[in-house]
Design brief:
The complex is a heterotrimer of chains A (674), B (208) and C (345). Chain A is mainly α and 674 residues long. Chain A has helices at 3-17, 23-40, 46-52, 56-85, 95-130, 138-160, 184-212, 225-257, 270-304, 311-324, 340-352, 354-368, 377-400, 402-408, 412-442, 448-474, 491-521, 602-619, 622-640, and strands at residues 569-571, 579-583, 590-595. Chain A has 19 helices and three strands. In chain A, helix 6 packs parallel to helix 18, helix 7 (184-212) runs antiparallel to helix 18 and helix 8 (225-257) packs parallel to helix 10. Chain B is built from five helices and one strand; from the N terminus they run βααααα. Strand 1 (569-571) of chain A pairs parallel with strand 1 (6-8) of chain B, so a sheet runs across the interface.
Chain lengths: 674, 208, 345
């Protein structure tokens, strides 16, 4: 037993017999414990430290910064496209450049920005919101980041070397198989492999954490809506990603080793590729959108100063959206020769999915109704969501109709729709989330004035870019065209859209400036600048490495509004080893003291081996074997090496479910801080 | 000064079997991912079948055989081997739970032997299919089904080897007993999913 | 005026109209010229109207919810954990009503949509119309008019004539990659997928020229893979069809004869067919009646002598990446070739 544990036991023994511990001694004991915790959970330093740090907050911040850089790159690609399309018969970009750019834009935004950033916010906030000291699988978490980074670097290295993929972000066969010579599409396919491995890793980490690492008392019906959204998204990732894994894997296989999955001459089927891709592709947009819904609820609750209206309905809506989302994919394929009767089923499903989303919107309005709202920037972005996303959702209902879709499919109408729902449903809530949680991550508030400017530039710019595109689609302008003839009459609307793009971009620029400024000079935030209700606001800003010194027992859905000062706390987790509390799935009864691994180089090593396998493997099959062997070695060291905790022999004695001490301890010894 | 109750967790164990341990959940989510992948691959098999009047498609050289069904020998032997191997694996599982190091060692050695044998048998199964992966869509999808499962057999065998080495040379502690039980779950899954694939590849063409 | 001049003047008028309007137009889904497009246009306006009303109502609800704004920071307002039961009930009922209305609207949309879809194919399947095979290539449209009588079958490219008031069945095939056949004024699009058969019915109810464009990304020149559908009265259509089934015009002048020789000895003959000459390759568009078409290069350039010259000499400058190589012809050869091609009416 360590010094402090002995001290603690003595103190506890003493207090039962005589009330002799004073407040100062208690405070000193807590200080000592805190010091030990800080040492035990200290972040490693230097380059080696950066490579091995498994702290979920560090990993999440890396994800956020990386994903934001990709967002900006994707935005620059969009700006280039808008410059090219601003005038008819423009020669700013060649067709090959344009085709690479729109492919990389879509791929970047969908795979390198949208999913990772949603994962990132989950990885940062979920452990804090559920009262855990870390995620369930910290090294898997770090591995997920590395494969994501490698995938992104792969794509951009190829792009800057003029070998960027150019078959669209969806890469339909036969264009992407027999009619795309060179390595471009192979690079795309392998980048998919990396990003989907990363998403899967993140999903397993989040579900494992949400299921098993919640604070005692946080039964499943007390889970914050943010956490519900992340949980459901993670399940969707688990069932959807394998489909794109197969789509890209079978495509790579057709290209590299001459299989015939998609080759009609040998019984293969181009429509099979579309099924495989869209079975993933449709849930993918919900994977991006549902976390956004999870951002909106806490922001509305905090600003409305009320509990959410219809918590159960909200949870059921999220779950049904997740389920129904798997039944829509054929609506991307209405122009193929699939029989109309079958297609109509997908029309029905595509329309039905708007009902749970509608329920959520109505519940949010009901929560806001009549409350004393302070319109700060996070709430502004939420209001922006209502405008933009509802409009996008309505055009989605139009696209759901098979016959109408046959007119507007693959036109700029769809470009308008998808940006309204994705930017409205994910990016606006995301920016709201940035303004809301930036104080927690950095300890400082972003500027309100800059935030308002940011919002209005983005809102006005966005609508200027994308609203005219509805008209352009109806006027006959197809997608993915690098130019158009002046006689088509599309020039004016395209020019308006291009101007809007620069206004939108300036809004993002204002955001970046705001972040850079506020990081050093923003107002100090304190623990809970928004007087909000969930557990992440109970700790300091930024939180200590170990998140919670004394994990609180949760007694309701809104812990900080429901008397957390008097809630019981968890004691007995080690301060000299990294320990977290594992609880049961439904009722969060304490079960184990889980040993959290410390910093480790093996996630990086496994990621690099995967890089050898999948990237060098495009060029020579020997790399696949070599990479596999390297990965095997790295994985062995990972799972059989020392994870920085002691081994314990045999089955341990001890009760699995401790009871709450029936006798309340005397007041002097109660830790005040969480 | 406020009163605050305390939950003392210092007596809780560090590892436990089954749903108590996050590792159980992590393992099962990985298996859920792989199951989805195989389910979609099986759906692909049946989807491609629609493009063929005869399935498997006729082979030019075998003039007498219009329908070159995959030969049953190696595949069936492998299936029987794997299904039967679940028995020693259950015993290994139970031995880990009760802390019996001797039986864990024996069970894991058997597992390693079965794993290698299964891999060898699998490599003969490819020849039992009358097509290569690059002959036609049928060949491609069948090789993929066999191949993806073979990857799992390889990983399973490697894991069994590593655990065997550990159990012989290092501490037989709670963490590694949980690992043995986790291996057992993975084993059952590899066998179970193989039975499905075996039925699809070897039997569904014989049905209709 | 010949039917050809009629058509050109109609095109010019339409182009003029197009460039100043955005609701009218010859490549426009809400400017229907046939029953299918009309049905879809009406469906569009119904959904647009209902959705606009819904959008406005939701926004009003959001704005009304903001009535009680304050500049007090959130910390100054104590949180309210329980709404009074009366308010709770009222809001719950409001939400239930809203969800019910939503469900009803969606159900109506579903029915209307399904019946619009049925109307696209149901009636027409019984009528005896025209059958045209369209094959999508990178980056042009191969068009083959079918007929029970083999002497009436002919192949052309990028320009399709149809008689007014007659349903036309288009059989759609992809030769290389997936393309999509779309003429918005006449109806919705269908994909041309290699290895698969797809089909679309179109009918024009008034004469006119309608522009279509490939609507599935198909590579470098997807943006410049357009086509024209010319709808004309039955007798004009018959006349056009009659002339298209003829073999190619024999060159009469010396220049034309020289041009034909240039054609047959240059790389042209590797890809292009001209019926009645030894040139029979199907790799590129059939040029038997090229002079009868209004545009060249898949409706990218109008069919003038200057454009033909530009296209022949350096098609890469018009459509970079397209399959036609540059041709270094001497000036005299080029003029002769142009004379010949322009004679192929």
């Amino acid at each position: 037993m360590s010094e402090s544990q002995k001290a603690q036991k003595t103190a506890e023994a003493a207090e039962v017999s005589n009330f002799t511990i004073s407040e100062e001694e208690l405070a000193a004991a807590m200080e000592r414990e805190r010091g030990e915790l800080e040492k035990t959970w200290a972040r490693p330093t230097g380059v080696w430290g950066w490579l091995t740090d498994t702290d979920h907050k560090a990993i999440a911040l890396r994800y956020i910064v990386t994903a934001f850089i990709f967002f900006v790159l994707g935005g620059l690609e969009a700006a280039l496209m808008r410059i090219q399309l601003a005038r008819p018969n423009n020669h700013f970009l060649s067709p090959d450049q344009y085709n690479q750019i729109f492919t990389v834009h879509g791929t970047t935004m969908m795979f390198l920005f949208a999913v990772p950033i949603m994962t990132a916010l989950g990885i940062y906030l979920v452990p804090l919101m559920i009262g855990a000291r870390d995620v369930a699988f910290p090294r898997v978490n770090l591995f997920g980041y590395y494969v994501y980074l490698i995938g992104g670097i792969l794509l951009y290295a190829a792009f800057f070397l003029n070998t960027g993929p150019d078959a669209g972000w969806f890469a339909y066969v036969p264009l992407s198989s027999a009619y795309s010579p060179g390595k471009r599409v192979d690079i795309w396919a392998q980048m998919i492999t990396f990003t989907e491995l990363s998403a899967l890793a993140g999903a397993v980490v989040i579900i494992g954490s949400v299921f098993k690492m919640r604070a005692p008392g946080m039964s499943i019906n007390r889970l914050p809506l943010f956490v519900w959204a992340q949980l459901i998204t993670s399940f969707m990732i688990i069932f959807a990603m394998p489909s794109v894994m197969l789509a890209s894997g079978l495509l790579a296989s057709d290209r590299l080793i001459d299989t015939h999955f998609f080759n009609p001459a040998e019984g293969g089927d181009p429509i099979l590729y579309q099924h495989l891709f869209w079975f993933f592709g449709h849930p993918e947009v919900y994977i991006i959108f549902i976390p956004g819904l999870g951002f909106i609820s806490p922001i509305i609750v905090a600003f409305a100063r009320r509990k959410i209206f219809g918590y159960t309905a909200m949870v059921l809506s999220l779950i049904s959206t997740g389920f129904i989302g798997f039944g829509l994919w054929v609506h991307h394929m209405f122009a193929t020769p699939i029989p109309q009767m079958g297609q109509s089923f997908f029309t029905a499903a595509s329309m039905v999915i708007s009902i749970p989303t509608g329920v959520q919107i109505f519940c949010w309005i009901a929560t806001l109704w009549g409350s004393r709202l302070n319109l700060k920037t996070p709430l502004l972005f939420v209001l922006g969501f209502f405008w933009v996303f509802v409009l996008g959702g309505l055009t989605g209902v139009m696209l759901a109709s098979v016959p109408l879709d046959l007119q507007i499919h693959d036109t700029f109408f769809v470009v308008a729709h998808l940006h309204y729902v994705l930017i409205g449903g994910a990016v606006f809530p995301l920016f709201g989330a940035f303004y809301y949680w930036f104080p927690k991550w950095t300890g400082r508030l972003l500027s309100e004035r800059a935030g308002r400017l940011n919002f209005w530039l983005m809102f006005i710019g966005f609508n200027l870019v994308f609203f005219p595109m509805h008209q352009l689609g109806l006027n006959g302008m197809p997608r993915r065209v690098y130019t158009y003839l002046p006689e088509t009459g599309w020039s004016t609307l395209n020019l308006i859209a291009s101007i809007g793009a620069f206004i939108l971009a300036s809004g993002v620029l204002v955001f970046i400036i705001n972040v850079v400024w506020a990081y050093r000079a923003g107002m100090v935030a304190g623990d809970n600048p928004w007087a909000a209700e969930s557990l992440e606001w109970a700790v300091s800003s930024p939180p200590p490495n170990f998140n919670f010194h004394n994990i609180p027992v949760v007694q309701g859905r809104y812990p900080l509004w429901e008397g957390i000062e008097n809630a019981p706390v968890v004691r007995g987790l080690s301060t000299t080893k990294r320990e977290a509390l594992v609880t049961s799935v439904m009722d969060a009864q304490p079960e184990l003291r889980f040993e959290i691994p410390g910093p480790s180089i093996w996630p990086l090593m496994v990621a690099l081996s995967a890089a050898v396998m999948f990237i060098v493997g495009i060029f020579t099959p020997w790399a696949i074997l070599t990479g596999a062997i390297l990965a095997g070695i790295a994985l062995t060291c990972w799972f059989f090496g020392d994870p920085n905790y002691e081994n314990h022999t045999a089955r341990e004695t001890g009760k699995k479910s401790p009871t709450i001490s029936p006798v309340s301890r005397p007041p002097e010894l109660q830790p005040k801080e969480i | 000064m406020s009163t605050r109750e305390v939950i003392d967790v210092s007596e809780l164990p560090h590892h436990e079997f089954d749903t108590y341990d996050p590792v159980w959940w992590g393992n099962n989510f990985l298996l859920a991912i792989e199951t989805s992948m195989f389910a979609i691959l099986v759906a692909t098999y049946f989807y491609l079948r629609q493009n063929f009047a005869l399935w498997p498609p006729p082979v030019a050289q075998l003039t007498a055989t219009l329908k070159p069904l995959p030969e049953l020998g190696y595949g069936t032997a492998n299936t029987i081997l794997l299904v039967v191997s679940c028995i020693p694996m259950v015993l290994t599982d139970l031995s880990a739970r009760r802390g019996d190091r001797r039986w864990s060692q024996i069970g894991l050695l058997i597992a390693v032997a079965v794993g290698f044998t299964a891999l060898v048998l699998r490599s003969f199964e490819y020849a039992a299919v009358y097509f290569r992966w690059d002959s036609n869509a049928y060949g491609s999808v069948v090789w993929f089904l066999l191949g993806m499962h073979m990857l799992h057999l390889a990983v399973l065998t490697t894991e069994a080897v590593l655990l065997t080495i550990w159990v012989f040379t290092r501490e037989y502690d709670m963490k590694h007993r949980v690992d043995i039980v986790t291996l057992a779950v993975y084993w059952y899954w590899v066998v179970g999913i193989w039975v499905l694939i075996y039925a699809v590849v070897y039997f569904t063409p014989r049905l209709g | 005026m010949t039917s050809k001049t009629n058509t050109i003047s109609r095109i010019c008028q339409c182009l003029l109209a197009l460039s100043v309007s955005s609701c009218g137009g010859i490549q426009n889904a809400v400017n229907p010229a046939g029953p299918q497009a009309d049905s879809l246009s009406r469906l569009w306006w119904l959904m647009f109207t209902v959705c606009s009303v819904v959008f406005v109502l939701v926004l009003i609800a959001v704005l009304l919810a903001l009535r009680n704004r304050t500049s007090e920071p959130p910390a100054n307002t104590p949180p309210l954990l329980e709404l009074p039961p009366e308010q709770q009930r009222r809001r719950r009922n409001a939400i239930i009503s809203a969800v019910t209305v939503t469900a009803v609207i969606l159900f109506v949309f579903l029915i209307v949509s399904y019946s619009a879809g049925r109307s696209l194919t149901a009636d027409l399947a019984h009528k005896n119309g025209l059958t045209i095979d369209v094959t999508g290539h990178q980056w042009w449209w191969e068009v083959r008019y079918n007929d029970a009588d083999a002497s009436n079958i002919f192949t052309t490219a990028n320009e399709i004539h149809i008689p007014v008031g007659v349903p036309v069945l288009f059989n759609l095939h992809g030769a290389d990659v997936i393309h999509s056949f779309w003429v918005p004024n006449l109806g919705g699009k269908r994909d041309l997928i290699p290895g698969k058969n797809n089909s679309a019915w179109y009918q024009a109810d008034k004469p006119g020229v309608f522009r279509g464009q490939c609507a599935e990304y198909c590579g470098l020149q997807h943006a410049q893979m357009a086509l024209w559908i010319v709808a004309e009265p039955q007798d004009q259509f018959n006349a056009w069809r009659q002339s298209q089934t003829q073999t190619s015009m024999t060159p009469t002048t010396d220049s034309q004869k020289r041009g034909q020789q240039v054609f047959l000895s240059a790389p042209c003959v590797m890809c292009h067919a001209i019926n009645g000459t030894p040139a029979g390759s199907n790799v590129g568009p059939n040029l038997t009646h090229i002079a009868s078409r209004n545009t060249i290069a898949a409706a990218t350039l109008s069919n003038t002598r200057e454009h033909l010259a530009q296209w022949i000499k350096d098609s890469q400058s018009v459509k970079p990446g397209n399959k036609m190589p540059q041709n270094n012809l001497g000036e005299a050869d080029l003029q002769a070739l142009l004379d010949y091609l322009q004679s192929l009416k």
